[in-house]
Structure formats: C-alpha cells, structure tokens
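Model it.
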Amino acid sequence: QVQLVESGGGLVQAGESLRLSCAASGSILLLNAMGWYRQYPGKQRELVARITNGGSTNYLDSVKGRFTISRDNAKNTVYLQMNSLKPEDTGVYYCHAISTRAWWGQGTQVTVSS
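Modeled.
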C-alpha cells in the first residue's frame, strides 16, 4: 500500500513560481513511475509530467520549458517545479504513482491570477 501526500499549492500571480512536493509512504524505487496530473472543474485529469524509475521524463506540451519534475529517492519524494505560471495552469494537482496498480494523492490547489 502506498500513500501519497502532496504539498506546495497556493495562490500566485502570473509569472511567479511554485514547487509541489509529493511524499510517498514507502520507497519510490519500488514504483515504476510517478507523476503529476491536474484537473479543471468539469474536466478529466490530464498528465502534466511524469518521471520513471529510470529517470526518464515526459511533459504536457503546454508546460515544456516551464515545469520540471524531479525525484529524491532518499526522501521518497517527487517534486514539480513550476515556473512562469500562467492562469491556465490553475487547477487541482494530483500526485500519481504506479507499479502493479495506481495510487493517487488527495490533490493540492494551484491558483494563478492574471
């Protein structure tokens, strides 16, 4: 069983930065991949960024060059550094982990004002 706890969301102005953290209850080395999804009201969750156990990353096109996903295996934590935030980045951000099944965090709200 894996528990994911997100932190770092908040209200910022356009152009500012935030760093999201996702702390896992167990070793993230046992997970095939971890990532961040976001969800707008009434919309499906979309993948923002993902990092595999081997360190490979992929990003949503609209965040490439602005967001960076990273992991600290010693702390069992995955981060999402979000720079040059835009109002359209507003949403609830969920941490996601997958191995033989998928786990989700509770979500953290990110609001970017114009």
